[in-house]
Amino acid sequence: MSLTELFSLDNAHLVALVIFPLGFMAHVLVSSGSLGRAFHIIMFATAISSLVVGISLIIYKSFNSVSTSEAVCNSLSGNYRLLLDYIYYDDNDIKVTATDGEWRTTQCEGGKNGVFSLKGDDRTEQKIELKINGIYRQIAISETKYQSIITIAADGQLIKRRIVNPVGGKPKITKRDDIRLDEYQNLITDKLLEYEEIIDKKHSAPESSICYPTLGKDDGRTFIAAICSDYARALVKYD
Questions:
Q1: In sequence order, which ranges of the chain are alpha helices (DSSP H)?
Q2: How many Å apart are CA 151 and CA 146, to the nearest integer?
Q3: How far apart are CA 75 and CA 35, in angstroms?
Q4: Cα 223 to Cα 212: distance, rounded to the nearest angstrom
Q5: Termini Cα distance of the chain
């Protein structure tokens, strides 16, 4: 390790804490008459100063890590919209595609060890399709609302995103694309009930309610992509 590295901000507190006992030993030697009084004053002052510097730097580093996560949290606060459509579910003749959505952050909250949580309200519009006679036909558009949290480590890294409280319970079914599907009404009703069960299960299951976010910037815009167990949700900040 070079002298520059040794006396860098990251290591200065260690150096200061090493100098303190050396200076204190010099103080003891002077008291016993082994060293001159002037040298005693210098070394004792150096020891005390080093101890103060060391402790101050430790406190500074601790507060600096906290402020890093808080700064990231505050910088990410705002409103986001869905950047790209994504398939949320595709199984058992049901396909669910997210076509619109937003995330409005509501609070930065500090926790233990410098960790911060960015809370927000999510809204997602989903197109629900049912395979009928081998062809996927849109049977409804649903809007779901829920709350989510992004956890930020003390060093400013995004740790995870999780859904904590689905708002309003059942999705709101708004429309169907073809009146000729009326003859399949019983099948459609059953499948929409199945869809609601799918949403409830995915929002409550740990493996699907927790995602891993990444942060990106391009042309001054901020992007957050949440990588989940079976889909990825990308958002762009607009306000």
A1: 3-6, 9-31, 37-76, 185-204, 206-209
A2: 17
A3: 56
A4: 14
A5: 46
Task: Quote the radius of gyration of the chain (alpha carbons, Å).
Answer: 29
Alpha-carbon span 223 to 208, nearest angstrom: 21
Residue 216: Cβ within 10 Å count: 11
Question: Which residues, including other chains, have CB under 8 Å from residue 89's CB and lie 6 or more apart?
Answer: 95, 96, 198, 202, 230
Count, in order, helices (H) and strands (E) of the chain: 5, 9
Angle between helices 37-76 and 9-31 (to 10 degrees): 160
Say how many residues make up the chain: 239
For the ranges 66-70, 128-132, 193-197, 220-224, the lowest mean pLDDT is seen at: 66-70
- pLDDT for residue 232 is more than 80: yes
Query: Token pair for residue 84?
Result: 């790209």
Please provide residue 24's backbone torsions phi and psi, each rounded to the nearest 5 degrees.
Answer: -65, -40
- Token pair belonging to 131: 């395979």
For residue 36, what is the DSSP state? -
Within 13 Å of residue 20, how many CA atoms lie on the same side as its CB? 14
Environment class of 123 (CB within 10 Å of its CB; exposed 0-12, middle 13-18, buried 19+)? middle
pTM: 0.68
